[in-house]
Amino acid sequence: MSRYRGPRFKKICRLGSLPGLTSKKPIVGSDLRNQSHFVKTLQYRIRLEEKQKLRFHYGLTERQLLKYVRIAAKAKGQTGQVLLQLLEMRLDNILFRLGMASTIPQARQLVNHRHILVNGHIVNIPSYRCKPEDIIMPRDEQKSRTMIQNSFNSSSRKQLPKHLTLQQFEYRGLVNQIIDTKWVGLKINELLVVEYYSRQT
């Protein structure tokens, strides 16, 4: 299944807030789910919705997400927490969390178009896994800096996760450490996602 390119607002009305997918907010009351609906909902559907939240928020294909689940299952620690750490440490997500892009798709485009340097080298792979002490900044070109400055100006100031440091006037971000899962920017039950994929891993 390919990456979702359809109407984003439709997805947040159904699944709830997905800040990485779009900066728009769902209209209060637009989510028609209620308690009696949840009682009747099958366990499979609940797991599927959690998986879809994760997939659309981070802009992944089905194959990419399954690959991350398999890597997380082989790693030390709880599979769900490792999965969230892997996704949060992607370069496109780090740019979004730093405020250098207003959405993850916009961050992906910046990376694909070779506007971003990691430790002084151009990286054009959005899924690049950032590590502690990585320094992330735009190329030393006016166009690259202007696009990032526009994102700083348009995005609302959010509390920066503790694993990141931003030097806004120098257009530079620093990865301090692997993210603690309590700082993940998406409300999700990652255990349901792991359960959804349990037969495929």
UniProtKB/TrEMBL annotation:
One of its GO terms (cellular component) is plastid. Residues 89-152 form the RNA-binding S4 domain. It is found in: Plastid. Signal peptide: none annotated. Coiled coil: none annotated. Residues 3-88 form the Small ribosomal subunit protein uS4 N-terminal domain. Keywords: Chloroplast, Plastid, Ribonucleoprotein, Ribosomal protein, RNA-binding, rRNA-binding. It holds the Pfam family Ribosomal_S4. GO terms for biological process: ribosomal small subunit biogenesis; translation. One of its GO terms (molecular function) is rRNA binding. InterPro entries: Ribosomal_uS4 (IPR022801), Ribosomal_uS4_bac-type (IPR005709), Ribosomal_uS4_CS (IPR018079), Ribosomal_uS4_N (IPR001912), S4_RNA-bd (IPR002942), S4_RNA-bd_sf (IPR036986). HAMAP family: Ribosomal_uS4_B. Belongs to the universal ribosomal protein uS4 family. This is Small ribosomal subunit protein uS4c. The lineage of its organism: Eukaryota, Viridiplantae, Streptophyta, Embryophyta, Tracheophyta.
